[in-house]
Design goal:
The protein is of the alpha+beta class and 328 residues long. Helices cover 29% and strands 24% of the residues. The chain has ten helices and twelve strands. The strands form three sheets. A six-stranded mixed beta sheet has the order 8-10-7-11-9-12. A four-stranded mixed beta sheet has the order 3-6-4-5, covered by helices on one side. A two-stranded antiparallel sheet has the order 1-2. Helix 1 runs parallel beside helix 4. The longest helix is centred in the middle third of the chain and has 18 residues. The N and C termini lie far apart (71 Å).
Length: 328
Amino acid sequence: MMVSYKDAGVDKEAGYEHVRRLKQMVASTQNEQVLGSLGSFAALYELGKYQEPVLVSGTDGVGTKLKIAFSLKKYDTVGIDLVAMCVNDVLCHGARPLFFLDYLACSELDAEVSSQLVSGIVSGCKQAGAALIGGETAEMPGFYQSGEYDMAGFTVGVVEKSAIIDGSAIKAGDVVVALPSSGLHSNGFSLVRALFKEPFPAELLTPTKIYVPEILSLLDQKIEIHGLANITGGGLEENVPRIISEGLCARIEKEKVRIPDIFKREEFTAVPESEMWGTFNMGVGFTLVVPPAELPKVTAALPDAYQIGEILSKEQCDSPGGDRICLL
């Protein structure tokens, strides 16, 4: 008996249809620095004019937020999450995202669903100013559950060596500034799925905010920024300390944080307050550490930005165990 690839669970025609649908969407994200075309063995990108270019890379996924998308059969937002999780990380070093690649894996390819997933990636790339230059779609029957997908992304950005932001300039007296999140973003969804019952509320799929335009606008204005932190898994407690040097501490006042309604839903009342702050962003999607004199410039440029804390010496911070953050 003859057995084809399709008999084994891989439909090559669906793969061809997937690529056909993507070509126009992918092209809409590209610029003159992208060389070659979709379908080549590898993607080529011309770096452009930099004096001392440093490439900054990041990779991430969407996590179990995908389970919410499967349940609601809504696939056009998680691609934005995927881009956001990657570009917001490289942005923390002052890097401008250049390009993005995606990996999509499934049991059997549904061209309609996959095109919706990629439409979200395209939207995210446009928000970030990054070219979608390639990716991989893998059909793996018997490995993934039917109807479910997994996604991963990879991005590369660039920054002049002299302009790298790594937190080393942070000093006592600097202020911690919050940029609001769009909601849960893409972290803590294993806990979220344990708290919420199906049908899940659609607001759980609100995509992660991409902060690239806002931060690059500040850098273009030559506003002095000493540190940048993407508030992802672990919330403020785990992410702000990543940019603070020994001998310093961030003191953040929780009462100043503007907590969105999503975190005030009844489902979250079962979670201890400490667990909430140690798991979710609680309304702060991104933070900046700037000198006090720069704060008015930041809030003038970004009206949603607001101060939530300051940088102190560890002795001033009343931080137990010498930690680099104290949430009051």
